[in-house]
Amino acid sequence: MLKILIAEDEEPIANLIRINLTRAGYQCVWAPDGNKAADLMMNENFSLVLLDIMLPEINGYELMEYAKRLDIPVIFITALGSTEHKVKGLKMGADDYLPKPFEIVELLARVEAVLRRYQKVETTFTIDNVFVDTLSHVVRVDGEEVQLTVKEFELLLLFARNRNIALYREMIYENVWGGEYGGQSRTVDLHVQRLKKKLHWEDKIIAVYKVGYRLNA
Amino acid sequence: MLKILIAEDEEPIANLIRINLTRAGYQCVWAPDGNKAADLMMNENFSLVLLDIMLPEINGYELMEYAKRLDIPVIFITALGSTEHKVKGLKMGADDYLPKPFEIVELLARVEAVLRRYQKVETTFTIDNVFVDTLSHVVRVDGEEVQLTVKEFELLLLFARNRNIALYREMIYENVWGGEYGGQSRTVDLHVQRLKKKLHWEDKIIAVYKVGYRLNA
DNA sequence: TTTTTTTGATACAAAAATGATACAATCTGG
DNA sequence: CCAGATTGTATCATTTTTGTATCAAAAAAA
Question: Cβ of residue A150 near strand D, that is under 7 Å?
Fold first, then answer.
């Protein structure tokens, strides 16, 4: 599991980020000031640092130098949305820049993009008895390789990326099939059933009545 | 419950907003002039400010600077629907702009959108022995997961958003069922009973004679 | 107290949602 | 073109939800 450092003095914002990144499958550590951030960077092995510019004790620019020396990618997160700061940050080597307020989806997208650029993205994951390699499209259930169709595979990824969240049929359809969800098609149900059967997940993917399905992980 | 500050000198308009936001489950505070608004912003913890530009004593633009310093999202509400003001407001950091006269549904939609963008909407909460995760639709009573139906779930959310407030059957029906409340249907009563039973809330949700129900929390 | 109104509790049937299976249409790779 | 896999519709069975009806209990009114 990839570790991400959140250097941000405002606790609610740090929490917001932590909660969402944790949900997305990252391990998060919070540093409320510059000293703690520097300390943590030295002693633990982070795959990414989210940096607030305005930090107590040691500011974000200095911290970025630390990070770059340790070859840790950096995304700036700050209320200072001016191009001036943006340019300065990127010039100094930041990998991306996220102005507050930000949408969570945007945060996640940028984090993923930077990690991919640095080849730090995990291309495999395991949930219970199921192992998945997203690159080779190989899925093993209890050690044995199982053949998933394209739709089933994408469905699995969707569930994996949204564990413990009730996914609406509408959302599932639009994500996996792409188009608009008519409303009375049973396609989603059918594919969920097939996926459940192949993965032996009869009790892990459960129906949320009148809503859709949820993966308990 | 989220608190919203309404900075608006015209009382009827302020009232209109207050009534509708209160009904939607927000706690509202009214400031009739700029000084009061600044005062309230400093001393209470608001999740959002609705700002009239033309305010006595301190105008809306200045107030926005206060708000931004406190990291409170801002929606401008003003009769000056000209793009000039709109642009100025948004440039200075307003999160949205609502020209008078406005439709109530539009007001609510924008408020919700901004709050969601700031992730001020809480996805989980706990009341006594009951834990609720609105994303996964999971409800735990004394630590054990309990299966609620959609209606029961929405009913619970409604009570949670309106703790210690006597909810009229009419209001409950319109919120959870959506249509018009006939008047002699026992549907609301039945569902409240079922909810009480499942949550062991026989003594927490109490009947208010001839009115409806109230959640004591 | 007695009466009336309102709410609580239970049973039950209609309606809706989901699971399961079969099968036709479509696609894919020889 | 063919064989097989994939995909989605149709159908029926099963489960769950939901609201009405009914009667009992409680609260207010007379």
Answer: yes
> In chain A, where does the domain assigned CATH 1.10.10.10 lie?
124-215
CATH 3.40.50.2300 range(s) for chain A read 3-117
Give the separation between CA A75 and CA A108, rounded to whole angstroms.
12
Chain B residues close to A214, C-beta within 8 Å: 136-137
Phi, psi of A45 (to 5 degrees): -105, 95
Contacts 24+ apart (CB under 8 A), B190-197: B191/B151, B191/B152, B191/B155, B192/B155, B194/B152, B195/B148, B195/B152, B195/B155, B195/B156
Q: What is the pTM of this model?
A: 0.67
* A169 Cβ within 7 A of any nucleic strand D atom: no
Domain B124-215 -> CATH class: mainly alpha
Query: Mean pLDDT, to the nearest integer, of A109-136?
Result: 85
Sign, CA torsion A32/A37/A40/A41: positive
Band the pLDDT of A124: cuts 50, 70, 90.
Answer: confident
* Whether the predicted pLDDT of A15 surpasses 60: yes
Q: Which nucleotides of strand C lie under 7 Å from a protein CB?
A: 6-11, 16-22
Contact A166 B135 (CB under 8 A): yes
Range with the poorest average pLDDT among B16-30, B75-89, B156-170: B75-89
Average pLDDT over residues A172-194: 88
Q: At the topology level of CATH, where does A3-117 sit?
A: Rossmann fold (3.40.50)
Cα A193 from Cα A2, distance rounded (Å) = 31
CB contact under 8 A, A214 and B136: yes
Is residue A55 within 8 A of residue A37, CB to CB? The reply is yes
- In this complex, the residue of B117, B137, B138 whose CB is nearest that of residue A103 is B117
Confidence of residue B11 (pLDDT cuts 50, 70, 90): very high
Residue with tokens 């919120």: B175
Distance from residue A182's CA to nucleotide C22's C1', rounded to whole Å = 24
Looking at chain B, which residue has its C-alpha nearest residue A206?
A: B136
Measuring CA to CA, which residue among A27, A25, A22 is closest to residue A47? Answer: A27
Q: What is the pLDDT of residues A80-103, one digit of tens each?
A: 555 566 566 566 677 888 776 676
Spatial contact of A183 and A210, defined as CB atoms under 8 Å apart: no
> Angle at which helices B34-43 and B60-69 pack, to 10 degrees?
10
Give the pLDDT band (50/70/90) at residue B85: low
